[in-house]
Specification:
Elements: H1 2-7, H2 12-49, H3 65-75, H4 86-102, H5 121-142, H6 146-177, H7 182-188, H8 207-220, H9 232-235, H10 245-270, H11 288-309, H12 315-343
Pfam families: NADHdh
Enzyme class: translocase
EC number: 7.1.1.-
Length: 348
């Protein structure tokens, strides 16, 4: 995009700046629209599994329900509790929403459709996703209320527990791909199995890592059955209890943007990203971003399916799963994968 703006007479610096802003808007605006629609899809999936209709009044088939909800919260008053730390209270949802958008900068939608094609893209995603918990912790502390504070403590412990496992899982992927670059990881999956199947997930040594990554992703995004930070039967609404209006909506937008990010990471790291399922020339006639979006939607369906059917874990079960099951298993597979790659001369 930079050469295009240079052709209009701009200097390189200004052309790069304008093209970067355009790239950010091309990702952020459709993503926010996608979040609004994906909330509608989420509610429809839950309704179908409970033999209900779901949203069906506002707009055709209820498609405008999310926009009506957004307008409603936009027109409401933002109430700040008198005992709250006003500055932190108001900035916490902004942090959550902003961090949720930042990670999308290195997600490849196609071979050349990526905002920042950096060599350490996976490290960038790992670092940015670790910052998401700060919005929750800030909200719990600033609310000056017991339930939000308990929620913030749970969020910090939960994030730490599953970040460690995710780190070891990503090491396995990086070892096999030989790069931290997100596009490089996608290309390393081309013809991975029998020279025709695209995707690390079909590798017997990496399939268990995908299962762990999928479950850890649900815990990392605080989705059911790991939504202990906003368990309504225990903590009212957790860290969101004291929030209203657009501050509350920002948390919802951030939460669903993070869920979509986890779906995108599942597709990119294990299922071939923008590559078609099979390395057959005719399948490449379909644009890469279409394959990518189909995979993301499939994983979002899985996330909704789990939320609609699996009961919430107790907190001790959550901690046990993270520390006593996922951590040792992911560490063991780091040893197995690296040992296999050394033995087969992959690093030679």
């Amino acid at each position: 995009m930079t050469p295009f703006f240079q052709s209009l007479g701009m200097s390189y610096d200004w052309a790069w700046f304008v093209s970067t802003i355009c790239g950010i808007l091309l990702i952020a605006l459709p993503l926010m629209l996608a979040v609004a629609m994906i909330i509608y899809v989420d509610r429809k999936i839950w309704a179908a599994m409970a033999l209900r209709r779901g949203p069906n009044v506002v707009g055709p088939f209820g498609l405008l329900q999310s926009f009506a909800d957004g307008l409603k919260v936009f027109l409401q008053e933002t109430i700040v509790p008198s005992a709250a730390n006003k500055g932190l209270f108001l900035i916490a949802p902004v942090v959550t929403f902003t961090v949720a958008l930042m990670a999308w900068a290195v997600i490849p939608f196609n071979s050349n459709a990526i905002l920042a094609d950096i060599n350490v893209g996976l490290l960038y995603v790992f670092a940015i996703s670790s910052l998401g918990v700060y919005g929750t912790i800030m909200a719990g502390w600033a609310s000056n209320s017991k339930y939000p504070f308990f929620s913030a403590m749970r969020a910090s412990a939960q994030m730490i527990s599953y970040e460690v496992s995710i780190g070891f899982i990503l090491i396995c992927v990086v070892l096999w791909a030989g790069t931290f670059n997100m596009n490089g990881i996608v290309l390393a999956q081309k013809g991975h199995l029998f020279g025709i199947v695209n995707g690390f997930v079909f590798n017997p040594l990496l399939f268990p890592m995908w299962v762990l990554f999928l479950i850890s992703g649900m815990a990392e995004t605080q989705r059911a059955p790991f939504d202990l930070t906003e368990a309504e039967s225990e903590l009212v609404a957790g860290y969101q209890t004291e929030y209203s209006s657009m501050a509350f909506a920002a948390y919802w937008l951030g939460e669903y943007a993070n869920v979509l990010l986890m779906c995108a990471l599942n597709a990119t790291l294990f299922w071939g990203g923008w590559l078609p399922p099979l390395d057959i020339p005719v399948l490449y006639l379909v644009p890469g971003f279409v394959w990518f979006l189909l995979k993301v939607f499939f994983f979002f369906f899985v996330f909704s399916w789990v939320k609609a059917t699996v009961p919430r874990y107790r907190y001790d079960q959550l901690m046990r799963l993270g520390w006593k099951v996922f951590l040792p298993v992911s560490l063991l597979f780091v040893v197995i994968v690296s040992g296999y790659l050394m033995a087969t001369g992959h690093f030679a």
